[in-house]
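Bug #77: duplicate submission created two jobs. Keeping one. Sequence:
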Amino acid sequence: MRIARFTTGDDPRFALVQQEGDRTYLAVLGGDPLYMPAMPTGERIELGDGVRLLAPVIPRSKVVAVGKNYADHAKEMGGEVPAAPLLFFKPNTAVVGPDDPVVLPEFTREVSYEAELAVVISKVCKDVEPEDVRRYVLGYTVANDVTARDAQRTDGQWARAKGFDTSCPLGPWIDTDLNPEDVAVRSRVNGELKQDGRTSDMVFDVSFLVSYISRAMTLLPGDVILTGTPAGVGRIDHGDRVECEVEGIGVLANPVFRRA
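Kept job's structure:
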């Protein structure tokens, strides 16, 4: 099952994504599937002109991200693989959706893309064992952990570098049936392939990460976990278009914009 959040110009709504040949339809739901069963209203809308996909979830409390969770990425950044997951936060104000612009802040001149698999939590999750994690996961989506690399180097901690507005694109929807153990994670800039990794190369897998994080802090419905990025990160600038893809979910695309 795929769950989208969308608008046709009015308040955001949720829908099940239905594919019929080369056409995509949205079967509108009666409420937020995080808090109630996914009950179609009977309304069905074709995805196209007049329909705008939004970030499939706006985290109620937090986005927890994991750094250096692929050995090849740790190496390209000049660091070692951490002995335990390296955690940091992105505020929910960083979240944007498909086709929303990534707006480069004035304080940075070196911004990077990072394609990632994202986990969406479905219910209160605390001190959960790895083997029980799936019961607490609504599904998975695609993320771009946009990073001001120069600020990351100079600030000593990552709040500004990874938490600025529009630095956390999510989308295009949530897939509830994905097996996250071995799927491709890719990025493209202006159509050119930049990253091409697999989740099986993660240092710490999804179940371990959710369990580990839940032992430190309570995860709430709608919280999102970014699971790390493979090697191949690089710079983006005004006028670029970034595509992040997770096999089995789809493509999240965003233009890059810098205000004059």
